[in-house]
Amino acid sequence: MHGSSLYKMKMFRQQHLAEFAGKPLKILDLGSTEIGASYRTIFDDPAWTYTGADLQPGLNVDVVLKAPYHWREIPTGSIDLFISGQVFEHVEYFWLTLLEMSRVLKPGGLVCIIVPSSGPEHRFPVDCWRFYPDGARAMGKFAGMEILKAETHWGGDDPTDDSMVWQDTTLVCRKPVLSSWAALRRYCRQRLQHFSLSLSL
After folding, report:
1. Where would you tag: which of 15, 25, 52, 182 has the fewest CB atoms within 10 A of its CB?
2. Measured between alpha carbons, how far is 100 from 79 in angstroms, rounded to an integer?
3. CATH number of the domain encompassing residue 24
4. Among 11, 51, 13, 49, CA closest to 31
């Protein structure tokens, strides 16, 4: 976990979670294995429950997911905040991950995903993708989210010394509250598509 990613997640907490201070908040960190650092200390409010999830046991992993695109260990609609940093570039079929993210989020739940737009190949075990703001917005829209922010940091004002290498893109979005039959139909259609895609893998 490089320093500029930690900095961006701290900024996300300051800008988007102030209203939740002292209130119960269930947080899921996907790809949480600590490699040099982790996000856990950023979300240290005593009222908050942080859960680190990954595909392998390791430092900062609370839940080991048995399957990458079917998180049976995480109940539907149980998460208030989904976070993930430096993970989606390593996910071969990241669109399936986005649909699982949508499934586990409560209506109104928040998302913060940090991904590189640049940087050298770093296979863990694969390195598939880089994301620009348009790609980040497409990720959020595919998952049926309301986009709050999608921007790439091109360097210059980040206090860390490694931001220019990765030029991280940050996506912040929110799962809408289903308030109409049209929204409900759209959500159900999306879940059926997810199921069909999953069967084909």
Report:
1. 182
2. 11
3. 3.40.50.150
4. 51
In angstroms, what CA-CA distances link 113 with 107, 179, 200? 18, 26, 27
Q: Please state, in angstroms and rounded to a whole number, the distance separating the CA atoms of residues 151 and 164.
A: 14
Alpha helices in the chain (DSSP H): 3-16, 94-104, 133-142, 163-166, 181-200
Cα gap 66→103, rounded to integer Å: 17
Per residue in 122-164, pLDDT (tens digit) is: 888 899 999 999 999 999 999 999 999 999 998 766 666 666 7
Q: What is residue 200's predicted lDDT score, i.e. its pLDDT?
A: 59
- Residue 178, classified by CB atoms within 10 Å of its CB into exposed (0-12), middle (13-18) or buried (19+), is middle
Tell me how many domains the chain contains. 1
Name the residue range of residue 163's domain: 3-200
Q: Which percentage of the chain shows pLDDT scores above 90?
A: 75
